Amino acid sequence: MLKYFLVSALALGANAQYVLHSAPTNYHGDWQAVARAPATEKVRFTIAVKEQNMDEIRRYALEVSNPKSSKFGQYLTQKEINLLTRPAQSDFDRVFAWLHSHNLKYEQQEAMITVSCSVEEAEKLLQTQFRVLASEQQGQKVIKAGDYQLPASVEFSVRTIFGLHGLPLPKQAPLKSKAGVAKVDPAVLASTYNIGGVSVDRSEKVRQAVAEFQGQLMSQTDLTNFFKQYVNSSQTGDDQVYKYVGNPKQTGEGIEALLDIEYIMGVAVGVKTEFWEWKQNDFCHDLNGWTTEILSEDDVPVVHSVSYGWQGALSQLGCQASDKSTVEDNFSKIAAKGISIILASGDSGSGYGGFPAKMYPSWPASSPWVTAVGATRFVNQEPGQPEMATDQFGSGGGFSTDFKQSPNAAWQSDVVKAYLSSGVPLPTSTLYDPSGRATPDISALGEGYQVVVEGRSESVGGTSASTPAFAGMVGLINDARAQAGKKPMGFLNQFIYQNADSFKDVTQGNNKIGRGGQRLAQGWECTKGWDPATGLGTPIFDKLLAAALALP
């Protein structure tokens, strides 16, 4: 809650009005304040200045990504996006004057102003106290602000400030598949989804990327060994990461990162691939940094695969509504720019739990501007058999309480309405909003992926497996379109829902299953057509490729 009150401040004049921003009180897990932060310790936070014309960006993003529109594929350049959304100069001036009055230096990237300073300097600027928060469960310590205050004039010009209250995502053990689970590798995926028909030209113009947010290690040696063991059609250099962006680690845990990079590259062999990583410090701050980097220039990958999210109240991570809406604005700008964001729909099924009980779809997969991918397995764990919703963990899905289908996800309203009126058993009506953005959009196999880790193969699962696999398919489609002189597919969802026959329907199973395989009291059943466990189904690649190449 924000509170207005009067205080005396030399820099802004006597009786200047301030706005109070309260620190979170319900952090996830065992996070708690253990000490005052040392005055000389360095802190870093990002001020997002209010942007303009975001309604126009959203309208344009929907238009250029709609295959039925005459403007399909006419994406905005980064310069055009920057000019359209640039904050008013008066808003910049207020923020700069505030920082200058405290003799603070900063870095600017469009609307984002990042300040690095000592705790003592930040406490004076924000009229707060910084504390050391610690979690024994996570084995981590972070420095975060308590309640802080902004001058009312600055508050008027600021959308949010990242880095003051947010926490990292909780560490979770990889979902290692149990004995008896069918083994999945690039050859199995190619056979199951008819992946082929693209002779990759290895162009730098249609690159793809994975993004990591939990300090994961990416081992080039393991990636090379994966190619030797599981990829038969590669050329020299296809096993090499094209570029690293952010803060790649040299030591630490790496199964999730290796799963991502091995399968986006193992599916889209020869497509130039980048590895993007952000420090494990503050999930929403990291998401803002990642999306801002995508919006830094025109020459960036056109497909991004992300296997991270949160199925719960974001306030438990110290992520406030203004943080979330700022990231969402970046997603809509990325869509207007013609870039595909593929996100894992979560591994906790319907997300049912908490007190009072709710069902939580994963965010950012529940954003209207990304493609959410759920997970399946083979019936009887036999490759070649039909697919069903995964049951070693729950394929994340449901209805957002933050985003509506109208206006930005209206492309799914007909299939969602059909599901809700199909007669399939539904959860208790008070637990979900039937008008909310619904996930997942599609699914793919999500159990038994063979991942090379420290020189040996391990069997791993999750929507973090299905997501890079589907992203690799999109990378192949973009490569084929580029060779035909066409632009990348961009924001995919309108194309996907207009080509539902390019997906194999999944009608067996449900997502009344938690991340550990435990049964949940509430969840969603698979049925004919779209459903909140497996979306429209699993890809039929040759049909998707043909539909994409038929577009201008």
Overview features:
single chain; alpha+beta; 14 helices; globular
How much helix, percentage-wise, in residues?
25-40%
Terminal Cα separation, in Å?
49 Å
Main sheet? 8 strands, mixed
Oligomeric assembly: single chain
Number of strands: 27
Structural Rg:
23 Å
Spans of at least 5 consecutive residues whose pLDDT stays below 50 are 1-15
Q: State mean pLDDT (0 to 100 scale).
A: 94
Strand content: 15-25%
Going by helix content, strand content and strand pairing, the class is alpha+beta
Shape: globular
Count helical runs: 14
Describe the overall structure.
- With 552 residues, this protein is α+β, with helices and mostly antiparallel strands.
- The chain has 14 helices and 27 strands.
- Strands 12, 13, 14, 15, 16, 19, 20 and 23 form an eight-stranded mixed sheet that branches. It has a four-stranded antiparallel sheet with strand order 5-6-4-10, sandwiched between helices.
- α8 (255-267) runs parallel beside α12 (463-483) and α12 (463-483) runs parallel beside α14 (541-549).
- Residues 1-15 have low confidence and may be disordered.
Secondary structure topology:
Elements: E1 2-9, E2 13-21, E3 32-36, E4 42-49, H1 54-64, H2 78-85, H3 89-101, E5 106-109, E6 112-118, H4 119-126, E7 130-135, E8 140-145, E9 148-151, H5 152-157, E10 158-162, E11 175-176, H6 186-193, E12 208-212, H7 220-230, E13 243-246, H8 255-267, E14 273-277, H9 283-294, E15 303-306, H10 321-336, E16 340-344, E17 352-353, E18 358-359, E19 371-378, E20 387-389, E21 398-404, H11 413-420, E22 436-439, E23 442-445, E24 449-453, E25 456-461, H12 463-483, H13 493-498, E26 503-504, E27 538-539, H14 541-549
Helix pairs in contact: 1-10, 7-8, 8-12, 9-10, 12-14
